[in-house]
Design brief:
Two copies of one chain form a homodimer. By secondary structure, chain A is of the alpha/beta class. Chain A contains twelve helices and twelve strands. Chain A has helices at residues 6-13, 17-24, 32-45, 51-58, 74-89, 106-117, 132-140, 164-177, 193-208, 225-236, 250-262, 296-312; strands at 63-68, 93-98, 121-124, 145-148, 159-162, 183-187, 218-220, 244-247, 272-274, 291-293, 320-323, 326-328. In chain A, strand 3, helix 7 and strand 4 (145-148) form a beta-alpha-beta unit. The structure holds a DNA duplex.
DNA sequence: GATTTCCCCGACATCGATGTCAAGAAACTG
DNA sequence: CAGTTTCTTGACATCGATGTCGGGGAAATC
């Protein structure tokens, strides 16, 4: 089937291709009657402009790049879905580009993509969004960037985030309110800036309650299940045990929970375990995890919105949208038994 | 920074743009010395051809579409990673396009994308790959398609798959070998063709063992956690209980497991529970799930490979790559206690 | 009524690559 | 050695849209 071009539309509407272009892009200086009649023909013929030709001539593209370190994690996948939905609504398309710093050729790969695709915008997620060198590359190629939850270089680009620190504080206060005093904390992957923010929020709440967790109650994890399990084993093999464990994400919280179960430690009766993210798996555990619901879908959605609108109005301050989180209380946290 | 074009390269190499194009695309009829010297200039200048211009003039595109119903599921995410890796290696880029049959405008959305992007290939995953009407649309737009694990219209397009039926039979035989006779089965979402194949594999093994599971031991699920949980509750509230449950995927198996735990039924001592997929969550359960490892990463990888190579050699039979699975025995299955 | 201004609209060049074709050189044929 | 085929190469048109610019007509100004 031969695709319909702007010429076909122009011919049938009895105007020049340029006028059709004007109508499509909502430019001024077209008589209302003509505008309407052209719009009708466009609809009738079900005409869609070719994205390549458009990108080529206008050098702005209708592709938005979504850059991930690991597109498999549930975190990334939900952001992706939000981004896809909004991109669709705005007539853009999403190109997924993985970036792995482990590979020494990541720079060339990235430059390749930028050359080849002439992206109309890029969305960077944690942890790759914190590398100044990477932001420089985007700058050099004039690709507008929006970052999701960056932790460094805060003033450089527009961003979309939630307040991890406040959320972690809320969660810690939830545990304190249940009577817990001996609360252990499992830190996240230090390359993700959110790890530090969550730790600070926890620390804030503890300090405000006049407590300061000793070093043996603070474990280093990497956001993955296994590290949570290891942290759990280390914590539960000590005496006395903490009465609550706050893991920096759900996957690690699940690891802690399984370490508890394998030692016959009842959750939440003997120990409360809470996570962060409200990943799908939070509801697949038993008991279900108390956690913080991250607005991931909305983060992806807003990021696309921002990167496209920014395109026009470039240096209007430093847009930063902060999205609300939610403390979700489920079965894995309960009152402190020891007092 | 002004991008480098083919002209710049041509000028510096002292040849015509067309010759540079020939070298880049590996066409014949270029003197070896010239070919080499041009290649050197290309490398020196770090030149990358603009994908838009290429797509526009040659009307073959360097974009491959990956079509999902739900890009969030772990299943889809792993396929996506495999596809991304291979696309990168072959100099293509992946555009993700969600399709939801629930939306009545899915046809227009799809046609929009095809018009706008002129895809060089499309990869369809289950369940959307089984709809003839959808395949027709791709045909009409001359977009070569590769399907991952299709269940219908088997002769229409090249495909990549694993043998669900054999795998399910293997799993059932594993349970039979452990001494189980009263095995319940939780079926998957009927819109996924794999559901039927897994059921048949289970049925094969049972029949071969001279058994036929009564209707009350066969539950209908939809591949989601909740449906597994519900099925588990229904199964465990009956007397006698089955001694093993085979759920058609891991997520449902987890649901069954949690239903068991909430009733103090020990796994695997009192009941064995097995899944299918080897999703990440299979290792996050306690005990860890016995399951079938699907070669999802490889499926994505092979699909991209196939869709691109097919482009050249079009009607060479009906390529169908079948990838190996693996039975992964973990803690959730054990010998039958009742005999 | 003459001049200026503004609004519409289309002709044409352009973006950056590849397809076509023909010319010239080289290699082969008889 | 003339004639034919094959190999190299570049000029030019093309893909499908948008940017630039200029012309014609209506409205506004003097």
């Amino acid at each position: 089937m031969k695709p319909i071009t702007i010429k076909d539309v122009a011919e049938r509407a009895g105007v020049s291709p340029k006028t059709v272009s004007r109508v499509i892009n909502g430019e001024a200086h077209v008589r209302p009657e003509i505008r309407e009649s052209v719009a009708r023909v466009v609809a009738d013929m079900n005409y869609r402009p070719n994205a390549f030709a458009r990108g080529l001539s206008s050098s702005r593209s209708f592709l938005v790049g979504l850059f991930f370190d690991d597109p498999v994690s549930g975190y990334a996948a939900t952001i992706q879905r939000g981004a896809l939905e909004q991109a669709r609504a705005m007539g853009r398309h999403i190109v997924i580009e993985p970036i792995t710093f482990q590979r020494s050729d990541w720079r060339e790969r990235l430059v390749d993509s930028l050359h080849a695709l002439r992206l109309g915008g890029a969305i960077l997620t944690s942890p790759i969004c914190d590398r100044a060198e990477l932001l420089d590359i985007f700058d050099r190629h004039d690709v507008p960037v929006v970052r999701i939850a960056p932790g460094a270089e805060l003033e450089r680009t527009p961003q979309v985030r939630m307040d991890d620190r406040d959320a972690a504080r809320d969660m810690a206060e939830h545990l304190l309110a249940l009577g817990h005093r001996d609360i252990a904390f499992v830190r996240g992957n230090p390359t993700h800036s959110a790890s530090e923010r969550r730790w600070l929020g926890f620390h804030d709440a503890m300090t405000a309650a006049g407590l300061s967790p000793p070093p043996e109650r603070v474990m280093q994890g990497d956001f993955r299940f296994r590290s949570g399990f290891d942290a759990g084993e280390a914590l539960f093999d000590r005496h006395p045990r903490p009465t609550a464990v706050f893991a920096s994400n759900d996957e690690m919280a699940l690891g802690v929970m399984i370490a508890a179960m394998s030692r016959q430690i009842a959750v939440p009766r003997a120990v409360s375990i809470v996570g962060f993210d409200d990943a799908e798996i939070a509801r697949m555990a038993w008991p279900q995890l108390t956690t913080i619901r991250q607005p991931n879908y909305a983060l992806g959605w807003e990021a696309v919105d921002l990167v496209i609108h920014q395109h026009g109005t470039n240096t209007t301050g430093d847009p930063c949208r902060i999205l609300p989180y939610e403390l979700v209380i489920r079965g894995s946290s309960g009152p402190c038994a020891v007092s």
